[in-house]
Design brief:
Elements lengths: L11 H4 L43 E6 L3 E5 L10 E5 L1 E2 L7 E2 L2 E6 L3 H4 L1 E5 L8 E5 L3 E6 L1 E6 L4 E6 L2 E7 L2 E2 L8 E10 L10 E8 L12 E5 L10 E3 L3 E2 L2 H8 L7 E5 L1
Parallel strand pairs: 10-19, 13-17, 16-18
Antiparallel strand pairs: 1-6, 1-9, 2-3, 4-5, 6-7, 7-8, 10-11, 11-12, 14-15, 14-19, 15-16
Amino acid sequence: MRTRLSALVVALAFVLAACGGSSSSTASDTLPPISAPAPTAPATTLPPGCGAAATKSISYTATAKNPGELAIYETPAAPEPVRTMTNPRYINEDPNAPVDLLFLVKDAPVADACQWVEVYLPMRPNGSSGWVKRTDVTLAANPFRIEADLGSFNLTVYEKGNVIKEIPIAVAADNTPTPGGLYFITELVKTPNPGGVYGPYAYGLSGFSEVHQTFNGGPGQLGIHGTNQPEYIGQQVSNGCLRMTNEDITELSKILPLGVPVEVIA
């Protein structure tokens, strides 16, 4: 299944609902339909033994194959799913804003004839994981990863373990910190106003603010986006999101597929 970067008919402030800060102008309440380009990670043939363990050079994504409810199990031995998640995922429950249900693979063991995949879930608490049946998902290899070092105001992009870009960023204020941990990119939004507070593009992440349980009507989702105030790069100004220049976010939007792991070093 192709990894789509959807046309989103939602308030971006709701999608990336932990991004505002005292040094930002007010975001608009609604956005017209805008499509984003779609970098994709091709389906992969797994190595001998059919495992898919992440390394510093490569990670794997698991995308739901079929529309409808995807069963998530607490363990491979569980007789019933602990929850289900809907494919496609609808941003802010808007039917005009579908995104393929996709996960970062935590482990794909060779036990049990390779029938199961453990995945990180885009939900609270941060770092939650569950198990899906391998037959229900398509695995794809991803050569990119991101490290965001909040203390040094720096975001590093790697491809196959090699540094391809170092990006200065603005980070969250002390009273609304970005929680450290491992996340992954869940969506890419192209904004209708490249000169607005989010710049031309914004990535949604699988993690959430631990301060804002809700924010501007949304769930307090973390994100990475551009800015119309580049003078604040290198400072602590946001409610949880990471900001970079519009030139940098535009460059990333052309190369990074969904599912890229993002390690936040707090």
